[in-house]
Design a protein that fits this description.
- 44% of the residues are buried.
- The chain is 39% helix and 19% strand.
- Strand 5 and strand 6 form a beta hairpin.
- It has four domains: 214 residues, 3-Layer(aba) Sandwich (Rossmann fold), CATH 3.40.50; 60 residues, no CATH class; 90 residues, Arc Repressor Mutant, subunit A (Orthogonal Bundle), CATH 1.10.10; 129 residues, no CATH class.
- The strands form five sheets. The chain has a five-stranded parallel beta sheet with strand order 2-3-4-1-7. It has a five-stranded mixed beta sheet with strand order 14-15-16-17-18, with helices on both faces. Strands 8-10-9 form a three-stranded antiparallel beta sheet.
- By secondary structure, it is α/β, with parallel strands linked by helices.
- Helix 17 runs antiparallel to helix 18.
Length: 534
Amino acid sequence: MGTYVNPGNDGFKRILAGEYVDKTGLIALVNGKIGTCDSLVCSTRPRRFGKTFAAESLVAYYSCGCDSSELFEGLAISRDPSFGEHLNVYNVVRLDMMEFRDIADVAHAVEEAILSDIEEALPGVGAKREGRTDRLCGALADFVDATGRKFVFVIDEWDVPLRERRDKKSQEDWVYFLRLLFKNANFTPKVVAACYMTGILPIMRLGTQSSLNNFWEYTFLDPGPCAPYVGFTEAEVEALAARHHMDMAELRHLYDGYEFPWFDKAAGEHKVEGIYAPFSVMCACDNRQADSYWVDSEPLGSLLSYVDMDFDGLRQAIVQVVGGASVRVNTRTFGNDMHDVRSADNVLTLLCHLGYLNYLDVDSYMGKARVPNEEIRSELRNALSQSRHAEVARIVRESGALLRATLDMGEDAVSEAMAHAHDWGCVPTYYNDEQSLRAVVRAAYIAAEDRYASVCELPSGRGVADVVYLPKPDDPYPVLVVELRWDKKPDSAIERILDKDYPEVLWDWRGPILLAGITYDNKTKEHSCRIVEA
């Protein structure tokens, strides 16, 4: 067994030694593509969404350098009709591109690494091709001739050379290297049985076309049949919650919210798969505490660099999604390059690929993006609070003043602050109902998220509270119950709270409860506020 060629199954063994959620159904999907024109797959998703686990399972399954039959016993792939046909019958090239992140000429380094393993396995293979530009392709072809087995390539974090390096030549050399292997009519069909690449970004575009347009791409915006394998499903999280004695409702509130429509060929029907972030769920189960673990997935500094970009409409869009609204996004203009971001749509599309937003297709040109869950909302709020953008900094500053005014029961100050929030929190043409008013309120109270857990539409005796802010444990602040009314008087909002017994939902709460009625008059364009103690 080599380091890069036929590395064996030790990686998957280590994964199985811990708590493993069975995602080997993905192998059956790849099996179905071997021997077809669709045998090249690129599946992209954010960090901490199980890309490496998937790669290790594929290496263990396909590599002829080991016997993995016992490893897969009882797992989903073992029940698939294709299981025995492809088990441990291919040469495998396994690349983790994080290993090459600091190397300037990454294409050359990868080529030499593979050639070294080939020479060690079969001395002299490819030696006659020394000095030729197709040396690697020739050596791989000779290796196939000598062993009688084609190659399956498994490339983890394929886009690291594009994400980590800004110089165009290095990026282009890496893409050219991949084209040489996988878009070569004289080489690819003879040598490559399949390729599975993982990464964060889809394949870079050259103009309007993918630079490797013969790959079948499943992205985080549109994972298609890979949807059940990009994260944990509801049923899988329920099983983990039961096993670790965790509160499923709390896990759902913090980590759920990614939704992917796809067509299930086996069932012959369209489905919408709800997906949880695996890393966060496992951390919560391991620590027996549901908390925000996303900060370990993407450095806050890199997120800030995108939030601070001065594009028209970006500030309003970011504030809107933090407030709970959805925003329209044109994803087609993004070239899948983190260093060539030119518009608000590009930033929002990138945030979707990074997992900060969930994207749902609406039509052939535009979709909607929203914050998927409270864990991500917390991280975006932290980014806003540290933003260098003057307008965003002002929003956060005014949000703090709004919270203080609410706690002091300063009704006029709250009304004035909400008027300011209207100006920067929501595009006026869409500010026309209680839903949009709620989005502005959520955005306006960004500062409250440090001290409170916010819940939209909390069930009550005879209705739902629009927004409820519950103080975090050991925090002395009062509960805030916010009721929103459109074209009504503020007293009517308080009456509706009392009429629907909202305070009764919190009757066990031992601290103070403030009821805030916030209204908007569509004729006068004015906000009003009434605050009382329950």
